Structure formats: C-alpha cells, structure tokens
Amino acid sequence: MQLAQQCRQEDPDIACIAELIMRDVAIYSAILKEINSPYYGLSSHITSIPHAIGLLGIERIFNQVRLIILRNTLSKTGRMERFWDTAQDVSRLSTVLVDKLGVNINRDVLYTLGMLHDCGLPLMVQAFDDYRDFLKGIQGYDCSALQQQEAQRFGFSHYQIGARMAERWHLPESIAECIRLQPELIDVLEDRVEADEQSRHLLAVLTLAQDISAEYRYYWRINPNDTNPRVEAALSFLAVPEYDYLSLKETLIETMA
C-alpha cells in the first residue's frame, strides 16, 4: 500500500500522504469526521487533511487510516452497528480512564486496542454461518470458557483470529498480544503468564473500560458474568481503590446516558 510506505519513511512527505488520503473519499471523509469528534477536543473545526496531519502527526493519522480500512473490511459482514458502537465506547472510555487514573501508557495504542479488542467476532461471523447462533447460546460471558468452546466447535477462538489479523495489518505488537491474552487476563496481571509491562497495563485499563461499557449497553446478547474477578485483578494491578473506581464508574456512565 503506497500510503503505508509513505508513512513509514524516516522523512515522510506530508503533501504526498495528504494527496493519497484525499484520493479515497471514504477515508478522507471518515478521518475528518473522527478528528472533529469530541475525543480529540480540538478548539477549531478541521477541514483539510494537511491541517489534520500537522496537528496530530503522521503516526496518529496512519492509525486512523488503518482503523477505517479495518472497519470497512469487517463491516462487510453485515449489520455491525451495535458491535462498533460498543467498540467505540470501550476505546474512548479507555483513554478517559488513563487520564483519570494517571496511567502512563500510549493513548493511541490504547484507543486502537479498544476498537479492535473483539475484532475476531465479526471475522468469525464472516467465516461461519452458525456463529451468531452459537453466541446466542452462550450462557454468560466467561472469556476462558468462551475461548474453549469456540476452539472445540470451530477449531480456534475469536481472540486468536483477532490477534492474527492485528499482526497481518502490522499493528503494534502489544495490540495483538493483548487481543490474544484476554482469556488469560487474571493470570497475566498476577504474573503467572508472561507478558510485557505495557501489555499488562493496556489489558488492565481495557478491562475496566469493558466493565463500564457493559453497564451501559450489551451486544451479542452476552451478559458479562465474570466481570468482578477480572475487575478486581485490574484494580489490584493498577493499585486503584475499589471505592474510587466505583465512584468514577458511576460518573462516566452518567455522562454516557
């Protein structure tokens, strides 16, 4: 992809990158829509790609391009609005939590992980005609049990296929690792499964964002019955008192309503 080659150069040509983006109307319009969203908190409305690149930098713009392309690819599965709404909730909640809790991790990587943490779900829907029915038959949402049942029935889990997709799209290694390790979250945070520190922090914040999102909306008709021990592990790892988290959680849910 010519755009990817330009973005990875030591001295990227901003004018060339802007021109490549503007050739694709879907990407062009989606980037401007995203950049002008409340998430970025910009004081003025951005109307040009060169201006956006100048404000946010090449890496952020390229991350947005990759997310847009991935979303368009995955959306070919069919009606996925509720899936993407939830993914957007989780990604934005993650970045808010980082600021509120004072966690020092890359916000762009965290945002991308929030968008793609369950990207294997639509891929499984695309690959297996009976996958939606399979999910509807799942009682509760135990990540480890779900991975085992998926592997038994389909040969692999949506966590594994999601991580593989992240690798093929040359996303940061920590994103693929976090997607893959979600079923082993507690063991990862309690240092029984090997993972680097950035991935541990990313997973801990992601878990809290998922918990808050689950209070606001459910998708795929899966009720998260294993949330408490996962949240407890995340809070312990981040050294956040439960009372402080519950207060913050209530505030954030009120802002989402």
TrEMBL record:
Stretches assigned to coiled coil: none
Positions of the HDOD domain: 1-185
Source species, domain of life = Bacteria
- Protein name in UniProt: HDOD domain-containing protein
